[in-house]
């Protein structure tokens, strides 16, 4: 009998080919799809990123260093670090408190609370700044009172911090909540039963358990806090050396046709983004079990 | 001990509920809810006639239309390419796959102003991509097309990141069963693989859309910002604010929020219906 009559006796290669035919696409289709994906990413992600560094170096190393060390740039860097240094810890405290209440207790209105915490994600950055101008601006609801008491919020540090806290409000909480929910409360209950105080239980049981998802949340929160543009643009007044954060400094330089200087400062922010992305990826590779949250933000 | 529990909360031996909820609610109210209430109050205080005048002025309508239709277009582009990207990242092995997987999140990490000037530099008539398109008469930067490019950039990761986990967890046996029962590959893809993915795809689509509607930083550099043509709604709010027209700014902002929330609510209702059909995915 010929081979054709015995189709069940086939070589390994033929079997492998058939498995792929059942659960996969041909080599040509694969190559086309991969090419489309790479071209799309190159056009929208890679080229912009590369162009930041190319344009930053367009005028040479000396011009680059001059652009990032001139007094206004240094002041912008300091202000950005200061604003993030206040906004991020604030959101860490609130995020931990929110996660503790939501993940460890069963109470009515929990889903509403979670939606409200996520609310800033659906609000335009510009509106996030606008709301504080309406409250504390010269013609805002508290404007006259603030002026009488010589307190400045808008066009000053407090306004920048408030707008930044608003836009970064959900980041820490939404990383911690799903992770703490998946861990349950058995460990904490055991510690309390054995006589540990509430604080000790939190510091030695809960916090170590969620440290990587906390770090993950802080990382994303910080990246957004340092890079925020729309919200701080509205409340800053863009006074050079005083209320200009790094992204705002980039805008001013760019609008004054100092392109190389704008890209030089922008390259620092792009560097921050790359470091954030690298740390985030490392966390996902090594501690994926300890980061319960889905990876969408 | 039992005094702390009520109809509002189930009993628990864990301490700290009061203080944790207290901190959360105070911060939420002071930072988010009261300021948003002030916005609603300011918009309402403009009075019906002024609200109508702002809402129906050609400039407002044009800006809102550009923001919402632009975001819709960008979200559609991201849905198609995000789907392909998620598929390629989950199903195929090729050099640099993990690197690409990580790179998808770049728009989350890169400050919008940096993205804005970088995209402008590339898509301007003398830029790397713009100079290739210029001979064909295609202008991207400083036109509504430039707005789309920026909105595609900011929404790029959402669909990939929502579809990817669902695709990863899909069992091989349903596809094999479909193939063994005689379905062709395309039929298997469209009738077996894709239907359970639709809810995740829709979630990613809405997230990308919501993000794009309010986007400001990456758009204003590349848009050209010509009133009635390439002026987005968030920019109109900033312009009204700079003219000290607080009420005008508040009305445009309130319109944006109301339309967004209505759309998100509508999609969530579709989603809830889809969940009932395909289970919780």
UniProtKB/TrEMBL annotation, chain A:
Chief location of this protein within or outside the cell: membrane
Organism phylogeny: Bacteria, Pseudomonadati, Pseudomonadota, Alphaproteobacteria, Hyphomicrobiales
InterPro entries, alphabetized: CysW_permease, MetI-like, MetI-like_sf, Sulph_transpt2
Localization in the cell: Cell membrane
Species for this entry: Bosea psychrotolerans
TM segment ranges: 27-54, 74-107, 119-141, 153-173, 214-237, 257-279
Pfam family, one: BPD_transp_1
Cellular component aspect of the GO annotation: plasma membrane
Function: Part of the ABC transporter complex CysAWTP (TC 3.A.1.6.1) involved in sulfate/thiosulfate import. Probably responsible for the translocation of the substrate across the membrane.
Topology with respect to the bilayer: Multi-pass membrane protein
Oligomer status and interactors: The complex is composed of two ATP-binding proteins (CysA), two transmembrane proteins (CysT and CysW) and a solute-binding protein (CysP).
CDD domains with a match to the protein in the record: TM_PBP2
NCBIfam families according to UniProt: 3a0106s02 (TIGR00969), permease_CysW (TIGR02140)
Molecular-function GO term, any one: ABC-type sulfate transporter activity
Keywords attached to this entry: Membrane, Sulfate transport, Transmembrane, Transmembrane helix, Transport
Keyword Transmembrane helix: yes
Residue ranges annotated for the ABC transmembrane type-1 domain, each copy included: 77-278
Gene3D superfamilies per UniProt: MetI-like
Protein name, per record: Sulfate transport system permease protein
Automatic annotation (TrEMBL), chain B:
Primary role: Part of the ABC transporter complex CysAWTP (TC 3.A.1.6.1) involved in sulfate/thiosulfate import. Probably responsible for the translocation of the substrate across the membrane. Part of the ABC transporter complex (TC 3.A.1.6.1) involved in sulfate/thiosulfate import.
Transmembrane segments: 17-41, 62-88, 108-128, 140-160, 189-209, 216-240, 246-270
Protein name: Sulfate transport system permease protein CysT
Keywords recorded for this protein, A-Z: Membrane, Sulfate transport, Transmembrane, Transmembrane helix, Transport
Pfam families: BPD_transp_1 (PF00528)
Keyword Isomerase found: no
Entry-linked InterPro entries: CysT_permease, MetI-like, MetI-like_sf, Sulph_transpt2
Membrane topology: Multi-pass membrane protein
GO CC annotation, single: plasma membrane
Species of origin: Bosea psychrotolerans
């Amino acid at each position: 009998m010929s081979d054709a009559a015995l189709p069940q006796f086939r070589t390994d290669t033929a079997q492998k080919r058939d498995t792929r035919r059942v659960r996969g696409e041909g080599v040509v289709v694969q190559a086309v799809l991969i090419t489309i994906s790479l071209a799309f990413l190159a056009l929208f992600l890679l080229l912009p990123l590369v162009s930041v560094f190319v344009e930053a170096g367009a005028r040479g190393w000396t011009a680059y260093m001059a652009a990032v060390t001139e007094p206004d740039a240094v002041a912008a860097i300091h202000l950005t670090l200061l604003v993030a240094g206040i906004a991020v810890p604030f959101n860490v405290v609130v995020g931990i408190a929110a996660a503790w209440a939501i993940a460890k207790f069963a109470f009515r209105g929990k889903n509403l609370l979670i939606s409200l915490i996520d609310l800033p994600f659906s609000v335009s950055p510009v509106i996030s700044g606008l709301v504080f101008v309406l409250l504390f601006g010269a013609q805002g609801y508290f404007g006259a009172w603030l002026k009488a008491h010589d307190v400045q919020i808008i066009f000053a540090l407090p306004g920048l911090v408030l707008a930044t806290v608003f836009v970064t409000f959900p980041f820490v909480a939404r990383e911690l909540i799903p992770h703490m929910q998946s861990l349950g409360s058995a460990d904490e209950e055991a510690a309390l039963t054995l006589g540990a105080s509430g604080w000790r239980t939190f510091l030695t049981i809960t916090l170590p358990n969620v440290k990587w998802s906390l770090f993950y949340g802080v990382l994303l929160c910080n990246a957004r806090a340092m890079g925020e543009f729309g919200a701080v643009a509205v409340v800053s007044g863009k006074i050079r050396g005083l209320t200009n954060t790094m992204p705002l400094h980039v805008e001013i330089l760019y609008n004054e046709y100092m392109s190389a200087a704008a890209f030089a400062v922008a390259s620092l922010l792009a560097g921050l983004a790359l470091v954030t992305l690298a740390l985030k990826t490392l966390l996902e590779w090594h501690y994926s079990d300890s980061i319960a949250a889905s990876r969408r933000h | 001990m039992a005094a702390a529990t009520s109809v509002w909360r189930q009993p628990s031996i864990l301490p700290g509920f009061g203080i944790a909820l207290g901190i959360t609610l105070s911060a939420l109210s002071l930072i988010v809810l009261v300021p948003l209430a002030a916005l609603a109050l300011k918009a309402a205080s403009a009075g019906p006639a002024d609200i109508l005048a702002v809402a129906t002025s050609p400039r407002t309508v044009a800006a809102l239309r550009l923001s919402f239709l632009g975001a819709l277009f960008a979200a559609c582009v991201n849905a198609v390419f995000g789907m392909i990207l998620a598929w390629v990242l989950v199903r195929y092995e090729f050099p640099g796959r993990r690197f690409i997987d990580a790179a998808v999140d770049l728009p989350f990490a890169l400050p919008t102003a940096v993205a804005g000037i970088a995209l402008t530099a590339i898509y301007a008539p003398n830029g790397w991509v713009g100079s290739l398109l210029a001979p064909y008469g295609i202008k991207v930067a400083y036109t509504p097309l430039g707005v789309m490019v920026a909105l595609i950039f900011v929404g790029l990761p959402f669909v990939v990141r929502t579809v990817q986990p669902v695709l990863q967890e899909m069992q091989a046996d349903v596809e094999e069963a479909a193939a063994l029962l005689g379905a062709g590959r395309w039929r298997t893809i469209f009738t077996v693989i894709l239907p359970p993915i639709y809810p995740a795809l829709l979630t990613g689509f809405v997230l990308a859309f919501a993000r794009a509607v309010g986007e400001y930083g990456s758009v204003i550099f590349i848009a050209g910002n010509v009133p009635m043509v390439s002026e987005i709604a968030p920019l109109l709010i900033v312009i009204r604010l700079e003219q000290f027209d607080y009420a005008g700014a508040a009305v445009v902002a309130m319109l944006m929020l109301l339309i967004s929330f209505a759309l998100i609510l509508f999609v969530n209702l579709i989603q809830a219906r889809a969940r009932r059909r395909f289970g919780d995915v």
